[in-house]
Structures are given as C-alpha cells and as structure tokens.
Amino acid sequence: MGLGDNRGMSIEITEELIARQPAEAQAVIRLLLRQVAELQTRVAGLEARVGKTPENSSLPPSSRHPHAKPSPKKMKEGRKRGGQPGHPKHKRPLIPPEECDDVMPLKPTECRRCGQQLAGEDATPLRHQVWELPEIKPIVVEYQRHRLTCPCCRTQTCAPLPPGVPTGQSGPRLIAFTALLMAYYRQSKRRTAEFLETLLGQPCSTDLTVKHQNLVAAALAPAYGKLVEQLPEQDQLGIDETATKEASHMAWLWTFVAGSFTVFGIRLSRSAEILAQLLTDRFRGTIHCDRAKMYWALGLDPPPDVPRHRLQWCWAHLKRDSQALIDHSDHQVKRLGRDLMRPTKKLFEVWARYRDGTITRRGFQRLMKPIHEEIDCLLLRGVFSGNPHLIGMCEELYGHREWLWTFVDQPGVEPTNNASERSLRHAVIWRKLSFGTQSERGSRFVERMLTVIETCRQQSRNTCDFLTTTIEAHFAAHTPPSLLPKV
Fold first, then answer.
1. Which residue in 400, 401, 378, 402 sits closest to 390, CA to CA?
2. 363: which residues sit within 8 A by CB, 6+ positions away?
3. Cα R_g (the chain), whole angstroms
C-alpha cells in the first residue's frame, strides 16, 4: 500500500518492509493500514452517495430538499413567469340565478350626471356572484329511550335504538370526515381534533380520533379483504414498496396496482414471503417491478403453465441507472452510460409512438428489434470490461435480459412501473409527516384508507361518500359496499 503526504511524496509499504520492523511496530503498522483501508472504503461510499439524485438513482423526488434546484434539462426561453400575452382568459363561469341561494337586484335611484329620478328595469343586468361558506353547526339528534314497566309482571323494558344508529356519540359522516382528515389530508390526530372543534364546533379529542380510526378500519375490513382476494386473478400488477415504521419496528409499505384498483399493505418484512402470501400460487399475470431481489423468485421459479419472463423490469429505473453511469468519475463507466442512454431514449420514443397509435404492434416490434440487439451488445461489453463498477450491474441485466423485454412480447404490458410509483406518492408524503404508525391497529387503518383513497381515484368515485356508506352499513350490520369494479 502506498501512503502519500501533502508534498507529493509517497512511501510503498510492503510486507518485506513491515517484516524488518520490531513486533510491536508491525502490529501498529498493520492496524493503521486496516484503518486507512476502511476509511478509504467509507469515503468512496460517501462520495457515491453524494452524487445520487432522483434523476440518476431510485431516490424518490421527495428526498430532494424543497429549495434544491434540479439540473436544467433545456435552455430557458427568456419569458417571464405567469400568463403570456394573448393567452385565453380563465374565469369561473356564473351559475344560473335560480341555483343561487339569494338574488339581490340593485337599481340606481337617480342619474349619475343630472340627478333625475330613474325607474324601470334592465333586461340584461350585470351579474356579480359572491361565494361564501355557510355557518357550520353540527346536527345533534337526541334519542330518548323510554323504560316502561309491565303492569302484569312489573318487568321494565327499554326501547332499543333504531337500526343503524351508533351506540357512540359520533355519526357516520363525522367518522368518515375524521378519517379523511387523518389519511387523505395528512393531518395529525391533535390537529384533526383542533380542526373539528374550532372550525366545525364539534367537541373532539385525540382519544376520540383514535376511536374513529379503529372503527373505520373495522368497517373497511370486508371491502379490503375482497380486493386482496382478487390480487391473484389479475393479468398485470405493478408492485413497489417503501420503508416505514410500526412503533419501534422497521416496516415496509407495499403497493399492488391493478387496472381498476390498488391494494396497500404494511408488513414487517420486505421478503418474497409477502408476495407469496398475497399473490399465492394462483397468480398467473405479469409483474411490473424494479430489480429488487424478492421479485426474482416469481420469474425464476414460476408455476409450470406460466412463462419464465412474467416480470417486467422498469425502464424508468434503468434510465436513471444509465444516468448514474454518465455521472460517474470513471471515463470507461461514463462512456458505457452514454452508449446505453441513446438506445434507451429511442426505446421510449418508439413506445410513445405505439401508445399513441401512430404505429402498429408489428411495426413497434420491428423497430424494437435493433434497440434490443444494441442494448444486449452494450451489456455484454460491460460484462467483459474488467471494470468492477460495470461488471455486477451488466451481469445482472444481461443474465435476466428477458425481463427487460416482456412489454415487447406481451400486448398491454408497459415498459415502466410508473403506476405503482404514482400510487406511492401520497403514501410517502403521509409517512414523512407522520413518521409511520404506532401500533398494528394503526397500520391496518393506514393500509385500508390508502387502498380506499387510491381505488376511488382510479374508479372516479367520491371517497367521502364511499366511507360514509360503509360506516352506515357497519352500524346497521348490512352488507358494505364493494371496491371491486362493476362488470
């Protein structure tokens, strides 16, 4: 090992040189050499981490500081911010007068020039509408349950509550609204209670928000369970996961995105066992995912009647990996990164043309063939480059290259896993604000509420109405509404 100083001098420390020293000095030298090697490895790792951004790694966009400016992708056009001269004006349209709560006709009494008295009406008056919130006041319904005594046996009988009336003091819409404040609008329990009390006049405490949370989780259990049961039946699933916490334990928030619904799950493991539990051995579809190892078992050991290439690795991740190679300090790594980036951009251009319908499926496959061959050759170049920064990544990609091109062979399969990443965006922001959950019951509430929020968005359904109807059915012991798409 060579050690240098600030003056450019270096000393080559060899085993022969160490052997000529006293035993105590040999021990000290070897200890120092080990420490220097560890520090060099640590510095190299830190330097690699410093260069990682959402553009060249799998770091989520939320990991970037809000004030950090991303690298410019195109030249500025020199225009000022805001609307440009000549752009169409956007204005809230007026509603019909009959839909207004009140219409106030305003007539001038005298001429603004000579003071002459005015009379009559304007057939087309200038209309000005002002929107205002009504005074918010809770609706309180009291149920007086009379206890009457039987004249024969003197037994007292108390009138029961009507079906669907909760035994607590909170109604279905209030409970649904509380759950939305915590899960949809990402408010803490304390702020949720303050909002209900100060703005809505509804007495509330943090303990009551927890009771609402547990009640909503129980009411959503049937609808959530039916969605989980449907996961193995899907033709395609986008799967992703992100780290979170459950009390003091490390946990992972999983998302499974189907065509018409999404399922979230919080588990204490990131292993392939979670996939086996939720997908079971009945799953025969295609999985969109990143290159995490737990997904490999689904492609390496599929059931007998399922093709081996039922994984589709995300090309958006691969594009960022190519950018990371371009940003590397090693010139050989940079060159391969640039060479990989060119066909990757062509791939997305061809895919955009096929998705827009400007080329046929056969034309799409024909244009993808040379891109496929070029990328395979570049990966082989990295495998035999002798560069440790390239060999591992290129061997992994080339060894499982069929998982890169499933979208070319199977109609309906996309080249990216953007759907699951988009579904995680709200969940990641919630996690950064809440720091995870404090109990298993809290995790069940979060996973079920996130499932409802994202599924209702996919199906263009009103989340508040669905929650309210579900809680009403829970109180009345009726069949709850389903989140499954209507056939």
1. 378
2. 354
3. 32
Residue 253 host element (H or E): strand 249-257
Question: Partners of 286 in the beta sheet?
Answer: 236
Query: How far apart (Å, rounded) are the C-alpha atoms in residues 178 and 431?
Result: 18
- Say how many Å lie between the first and final Cα of the chain, rounded: 70
Q: What is the pLDDT of residues 214-250, one digit of tens each?
A: 999 999 999 999 999 999 999 999 999 999 999 989 9
Our count of domains for the chain comes to 1
- Asked if residue 56 is part of any domain, the answer here is no
Whole-angstrom distance, CA of residue 481 vs CA of residue 487: 15
Tokens of 277: 């539990």
Long-range Cβ contacts of 3-10 (<8 Å, 24+ apart) = 3/36
Nearest to 232 by CA among 272, 285, 294: 285
Q: Give the position of tokens 């303050």.
A: 194
What's the pLDDT tens digit per position in 144-177? 999 999 999 999 999 999 999 999 999 999 999 9
Q: What token pair was written down for 197?
A: 């009390």
Cβ-in-10-Å burial (0-12, 13-18, 19+) of 446 comes to: buried
Distances (CA, A) of 195 to 35, 204, 384: 56, 9, 63
C-alpha dihedral, 450 to 453 to 454 to 459, nearest 10°: 150
Kindly state whether residue 63 falls inside one of the protein's structural domains: no
Using a 10 angstrom Cβ sphere, with 0-12 exposed, 13-18 middle and 19 or more buried, the burial of residue 263 is buried
CA dist., res. 263 & res. 278, Å (int): 10
Domain housing 412: 315-416
* 400 located within any domain: yes
Q: Which two tokens stand for residue 331?
A: 């010139």
Cα–Cα distance between 400 and 415 in angstroms, integer? 15
Question: Pick from 200, 215, 202: which is nearest to 467 by CA?
Answer: 215
pTM for this one? 0.80
DSSP code of 240?
Answer: E
Query: Does residue 298 form part of some domain?
Result: no
